[in-house]
Structures are given as C-alpha cells and as structure tokens.
Amino acid sequence: MERVTNLILIDSDTRRRATISHMLSADAIHVEPFENISELASAWPRSGVILIHHEAGAVNDLVEAMARYGEWFPIVAFREDPCTHNIVQAILDGAIDYLPWPISSGQLAETVRCSIERAAEVGNAKLREVMARTRIERLTRREREVLGGVASGLSNRLIGEKLSISPRTVEIHRANMLHKLGANHTSDAIRIAIEAALVH
C-alpha cells in the first residue's frame, strides 16, 4: 500500500483550502490546512511538504519561522498568474518549487511527491544556511567585513590594511563578531560564513 504523504497547506482563502484538500484526497496525500503562519506555529507539524499561497514576504516569513523551530520542510509556493519576479523571489527566499493556480490534481500530487524527494537532499543544508544567515544579520557592517577577511584567510594586520583600521581595532571587531555568532573559535565563524553563503 502507498505511504500517505503529509501536505501542510497555508492559505487564507477558505474555499481554495477546501478545493486543494479535496483534490489531493484521492492521491493518498493528507492535507493539514492552516490559515496563516501564526496558526501553523501553534501546531508545528512533524513532517510534510508546505504548500503556501504566495504573497509578498510569505516564503521569507515561513523560512524564518522554521529557523526559529530548527525544523526544515520543503516549501512549494503557488499563486494565480505568477510573474517571473514572483517566482524568482520565492525561490531566493527558500521555496524549492513554484506552481501556477489553478492546477490539475495530478500535477499537484506529482509536484508534492517530487518535493519530498528533493527535500531529502536540500533540507538540512537549507536549514543550516537560514540559521547561519540569521546569526550573521546580528553583526554590524564592520564585523561582517572582518568576518569576510577572516574567512578569506587574512591576518588581523592584512584585514586592518584592507579596511584602513588598526590591527587592534580588527581584534576588537573580531572578538565581538565571534561572541555574536556564538562561535568558540575562528573555524566556527568561518563555517557559519560558508553556510550563510557569505564566502564561497
């Protein structure tokens, strides 16, 4: 017997939530409908793929909520007549797929299944990236510049020359940067910078 797949649906439109739930019931896909991210946060799921109706900032808000919970679920965004900008923004914010609405039940079910397979590959890496970016957002511009220099293998003296500040000032920024990142060693800070895609 085919394993039941869990779909977490976030959509403020009651009628559309009912339509999607009905469409997927025949495909062994269990739908958990939520009106918004706050409602989801009050009953955080154990597993599944999130299908979210895409409005400005929705995917980004959802990714931030997942970072707070330390759980990553693959996100598929959808909306009526999406333009290229909508799709690109959602993918940059963390969605792994994007669908136009309306969509056939077969296409929707297939997308959900593909997303589960892809999630196994990208899930943990994506969560680490989101969490690392959240930490780096705590840094001042100068601390980020020092972190960039450290991650590039530069000494305090060379970082100071590059930023036109003294090695002692670099040391102070470096200590503050490590503290804010929650890093015990420089190697931890470099790992966080790499995970946040600050350096390649």
UniProtKB/TrEMBL annotation:
It comes from the Bacteria. Residues 6-116 form the Response regulatory domain. The keyword Protease does not apply. Keywords: DNA-binding, Transcription, Transcription regulation. InterPro entries: CheY-like_superfamily, Sig_transdc_resp-reg_C-effctor, Sig_transdc_resp-reg_receiver, Tscrpt_reg_LuxR_C. Residues 132-197 form the HTH luxR-type domain. CDD domains: LuxR_C_like. The keyword Aminoacyl-tRNA synthetase does not apply. Coiled coil: none annotated. Pfam families: GerE. This is Transcriptional regulatory protein FixJ.
